[in-house]
Amino acid sequence: RADAHLHRGLALKPATIAEHFNLATLLLDQDRLTDAVACLKDIVTRHPQSVEAHVRLGRACRRANDPDGMLAAANAGLRLEPNHPILHLLASEAHFDRGELKEGWHDYRWRFQSTENRVLGKNYPLSVWQGEDLKERGLLVWTEQGPGDEILYANMLGDLAARAKRCAVQCSPRLAPLFKRAFPNVTVFDRDLNAD
Length: 196
What we know:
three-stranded parallel β-sheet
C-alpha cells in the first residue's frame, strides 16, 4: 500500500511539508477522510504558519462534513493571512452549514476572488448593496449560478422590491417570462447588462 510506504519513509527521515501533504492527498484520494484530517491536523501542528496547511485542512473538513473543523481551520488561516479568499469562502460555507447566515453572507463576498469559485463576478459600475436603506435607491440583482439557484433565491425578490425605490433583476433568458409574471413591479433583463 502506498500509504504504508509513505509512513515508513516519513518515519525514517525528517520530511518536508510537501511529503506530509503527499500523504494527506493520498488519504483523501482513498476517501480515508478521518485519517486525512488527522494527518492535516498534524501538519498544522508541525507548521502552524503554513497558510496552505490551513487551507488543505479546511478542504478536508469540508469533505468530511465537519463544519466546525472547517471553520476552525479557516479562522486559524485567516489570522495568518486575513485577505485569503479561499479561507473566507471556507469560513462562509462553514457558517452557512452551522446556520450562521449573517456571518456566512459576510464571508461569501470573497467568492469572486477565490479560485474555488468558477463563477465570475459582474463588473457593473454600481456600488454593492451593504444592507443600507433602499427607499430612495434602486437595486440590481444578477444571476451568478444556474437556473435552479435563480429559482431558489427568487423568493427574496418580492421582499427586495418592496424595500427599494426600484428593483431590476438580470436572469437567465428562459426564466425571464416567469420572473416578469411573478414580479410585475421588478424590471427583468434576460441578458447581461452593459454600462448603459
